Amino acid sequence: MSLMRVEGLTKEFGGVRAIEDLDFSIPAGGAFSIIGPNGAGKTTLLNLLTGIYVPTRGRVLMEGADLTGCAPHEYAARGIARTFQNLQLFFNMSALENVMVGRHLRERCGLAAALLRFPARARAERAARAEAAEWMSYVGLADHVNAKADAMPYGSLKRLEVARALATRPRLLLLDEPAAGLNPTETREIEALIAKLASAGITVVLVEHNMRLVMGVSEHILVLDYGRRLAEGTAHEVRSDPRVIEAYLGRNSAYAG
Amino acid sequence: MLDRLASPRTGGLAALALIVLLLPLALRNNYMYEVAILVGLNAIVCIGLNLLIGYAGQISLGHAGFFGLGAYVPAILAARYGWPSAAAVAASTFGVAVLAYLVGRPILRLRGHYLAMATLGMGIIISIVIATEDRLTGGPDGMQVPPLALAGFVLSGEKSWYWVVGALLVVAVWLAQNLVDSPHGRALRALHTSEVAAEVSGIDSAGHKVRVFVISAVYAALAGSLAAYYAGFITPAKVTFFHSIELVTMVVFGGMASTFGAVVGAAVLTTLPQALTSFKEYEMVAFGAVMMATMIFMPKGLVPTLAARIAARSAPR
Amino acid sequence: MSAQFLQFLLAGLTVGAIYALVALGFSIIYNASHVINFAQGEFVMIGGMATVSLAGAGLPLPAAIASAVLLSAAIGLALQKFAIEPARGAPVVALIIITIGASILLRGVAALVWGKNIHALKAFSGEAPIQIAGATLVPQSLWVIGVALAVVALLGWFFRRTLLGKALLATSHNRLAAQLAGISVRHVLLASFGLSGALGAVAGVLVAPITFTSWDIGVMLGLKGFAAAVLGGIGSGPGAVLGGLALGIAEAMSAGYVSSAYKDAIAFVIILAVLVFLPSGLLGARGAERV
Question: Which residue among A100, A236, B116, B288 is least enclosed by CB atoms within 10 Å?
Answer without folding.
Answer: A236
